[in-house]
Hints:
The protein is α+β, with helices and mostly antiparallel strands and 486 residues long.
Amino acid sequence: MSKDLEQQISILRKSRWVNLSGLIDCVTKSLSKPTCQSIQLLGNGSYNTVYKLVFADDTEIAASVSVHDDEDFNPQAKLSEIATMQFVRASGLYPDILVPQVHAWDVTFSNPVCAPYVLMDIVHGRKLDNLKNDDNNLRGLDSMSEVQQLTATKTLAKLQSALSAPVSFDKIGSITLNDEGSFIVGPLFSITQQNLGGPYQSLTDLWRARLENEILHAMREWTGLETDQLSQSLSEPKCTPQKFSELFQLLSSLTPHFVPPSSYLPLVLHHPDLALRNVFFDLTDNTKIVGLIDWGGAQILPLILTAKFPDDLNSTGEDPCERQGIPDEGWNTVPHDWTSFGDTSKWPKVFRGVNDEVDLTIRGSAMIRRYYLRQHFGACFAQENHERYGDYDIGRALLFTHAPYYLKFHEIITGGWIAWVDHAEWIRETYWRLKAVKQGTRDHALIVGPNVYRSSMEKSVIDLSIFEEQFSKDEQDGEEEEETGE
């Protein structure tokens, strides 16, 4: 190995256990490459670090190396990611979606790299997520002019439509290869490599199984506690067995009502991280996509659960700040709608330095623009589906308008008991509102509602447990004061 190559390796970012010299050896031998001339960082994310290797014959290879250690890495999830990329290339369903060819992989920690890796072609193109507007300090989509934003949004909507081709699979889960090398649907893997079980025959099967999984967790982990406090770390929300049971019963009762109408149930391929950072555009044409990467956590899901906006169009209730009277419900899959500022005199003051106040309305205006861009995205998606698939279904034409409550419910169910507690008020409020309006309505009626709940229904029951809850809170506050010596 040349001294130049050794020098390059010494300064590259990597996990402490990764052997980059071993990576070069693996690529050279497994792909029969000549001498490696250079190695450089191509990109890094939450799950992988990607390196570009250039060889003496001027060929290039991208090597994606997992950043997880052997305790957190899920080899089956990685194999599913590889199989999905192969399926997209081989199935013929996605002629407009260009995915790099995978040449070799090893999902163990016993190879010369000392970490799982995947070797694939490099995608050459332009990424728009790193654009910056120096006048307002905005980046990516937010940094573009309004006309450029419309163009980029329409291009992403066309990509989303291309992913929405119905598949021949009949189960919910993630793609994998069987022993014969055929594509099948196996267990459902999340973007964090969590195995959610399955495959499942229906949404009801999936949701019931996840609820049952939380009961199993309770019986295995919470049957020897000294107190009724279930959270075992500061990162877990406070919860009691009684609250857990209440939320379990509410979710169980809501499950049959959240089965969408049949027109929203065709199974399609879902890319869970559709965003400009994973999309490569033609060097001279921002309407032409030349590559889509980062397929980890891809799933086969009913169409309505794939109606998640690209990350560049999302917004939260705390960015740039929370507004009075408009709660931030904290969803991962559904944006918080910014449509107006409210009283900016009540916004917090933020400073970059002494006497250098940040104008939060610049960021606020960007969030409001994202709201209108989401409307454009939904309309462009419907138009593209009409032209691409001849889809005349008037309900599916409003897919992104109709999907939020199903996405919220699915996020809660698959997020486990911690997600239940985080969204306890939404669960309760949804139950009581449905109870009020569902009397006499037909099964599987479409469920829509406000972006956030700003008010609470007056419940038709008198809950006398409020006194026990207050007593328990006072008792817990007293214990905390004793511990702090106050």
